[in-house]
Amino acid sequence: MTEATGTARVITLLVVDDHPVVRDGLRGMFASAPGFEVLGEAADGVAAVELALRLDPDVVLMDLRMPGGGGVAAIARLARLGARSRVLVLTTYDTDSDTLPAIEAGATGYLLKDAPRDELFTAVRAAADGRTVLSPAVASRLVSRVRTPTAPGNESLSAREREVLGLVARGTSNREIAAELFISEATVKTHLTHVFAKLGAKDRAAAVAVAYERGILG
User: Fold this and answer.
1) What does the pLDDT look like over 16-44, one tens digit per residue?
2) What pTM was computed for the model?
3) For every residue of the chain, which 3-state class applies, written as one string?
């Protein structure tokens, strides 16, 4: 309760998912519960960033794999732009190649879509307060990852390194990558140097091949 008004705080949300049925279901679920208001919906990461900046919700419920713009890139962009909104990932994927980049990019929490309704409500409230929320499966994976020494040539890529590598895989030149990501060519080369070292690759083609093989791309 707030002292000024004596009313409960309403948490505002933006729902981001490429499936209309999922978006409708989430909107209906939050509409039926007191203390929540869905301000808008987006079907991809690009639209999510635009709406989050315009609507300024407390929490963005973000899916990860979406045609037209993935969730990790959107999370990273919101962080770079200094958005106030907290991002709570809500997805069906709990692999290392999904969870780690999302959290590195700036997600406040990570929840799976099979989470019970009350758990989702609790997670959204926690995210709005800036508290980290992880589903048990994801938390277990992260703890295991921290406790297990990383083998040489098998370190995880940062969100920006994955972004650069994804553009390399599409045949984009360093100059084009720099323009696309609003960074210098020197920075692109630095990211690629780190990518090569982490993947144990000697050049661009080898890095892309290793990334596909390990499920980092695709």
Assistant:
1) 999 999 999 999 999 999 999 999 999 99
2) 0.65
3) CCCCCCCCCCEEEEEECCCHHHHHHHHHHHHCCCCEEEEEEECCHHHHHHHHHHHCCCEEEECCCCCCCCHHHHHHHHHHCCCCCEEEEEECCCCHHHHHHHHHHCCCEEEECCCCHHHHHHHHHHHHCCCCEECHHHHHHHHHHHHCCCCCCCCCCCHHHHHHHHHHHCCCCHHHHHHHHCCCHHHHHHHHHHHHHHHCCCCHHHHHHHHHHCCCCC
